[in-house]
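Consider the following assembly input.
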Amino acid sequence: MTLKKCILCLSFIALAIPGTLLGHHSFAVYDHSRTLNLKGKVTMWKWSNPHAYLDIDVQDGADVKHYTLEGTSINMLQRLGWRSNMIKAGDEVKVVFAPLLNGEPAGLLLEITLPSGETKELPVPAANTFKRTPE
Amino acid sequence: MTSYKIIFPLAIVALMSTQPAARAQQASTGVPDITGSWERARDASIPAQPQPPLKPQYMKEYQAKLQALREGNQKGQPIADHVVMCLPDGMPGMMSGPFPMEILQSKGQVTIIQEAYTQVRRILLDREQKPIDDVEPGFYGRSVGHWEGSTLLVDTLGIKENVLYQNVPHSKDMRIKERISLGANGILRDEVTVEDPAVLEKPWMFTFGYRRMQDYQLLEYICEDNREYADDKGVQQIRIPGRD
């Protein structure tokens, strides 16, 4: 089986198995009703399990607001072609994320646009349950 | 013939890479070659998993727990489970995927490695199972197995009571029996029978199906940076760096 097919059947499994089994945990702490679309500068791209993390600084008027964004398992990312060197500190990126319900400056990373202009979606289980807010 | 030049080195590589003695033994005994990487597969030959046939008092607790999990998720306050602590699934959860797994057949042992949490279980071949009281409880227990024709029969004892598959309760005396076989359709079947007379009204039977992943090498998985934790109410929270 090719890697592509393997990814395809993983996604079929994704439809068949309850969400809590798929990810590291439940994503219920994140707001499913809206997303934030922000541009910022990467301060850290943490390539680690159970999940990758992206830290960014976002200009907010005269202030800089820092966000911590949770990704998925780096194993899932790697199987889909992501690499640890794809993102580095200093990169200007655009992100789409579901914010934490408790208002902390953190969220679940759903999509990133890299400096090259390439946009990548994260393999978040049940990603379609997160309602996107238009830019 | 140029083909000889090509085929001969290929044959040497093939002989070196396929452990001919082991393969010949497999061929003569009907033991299939299941070494390699596998992933969970949906297939028409794999039946849907039935509800666990729990005794009424345990069914009540189980349903209440599922309801509490649903409500926690709806409120955005999920109840923390073992994965929040970065604890592995144990048996039989590690056989459920969804990450790939690797099977290794060696003399006297079949080893199964689940990519998530780098979980490992060892199935000791042609060994006696110990009495339950002689097996210290753990996440994977003690597995012994033997080939009956082309089917690997496995018996597992000694799973900790806090190691739960899909939140289904069990006693310390739970026994897991498995029949692992490779179908003509290429689907590897693991027919699981959970026996636990103290908790179940009858054995709970379900089947996992797997499809071979050609040329896939398992990746490492270490819980290096777990920012999730359970608060004092048992609710899952996220630790934000700089705000601890």
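Residues 56-74 of chain B form the longest helix (19 residues). Ask yourself how this observation constrains the way the partners meet.
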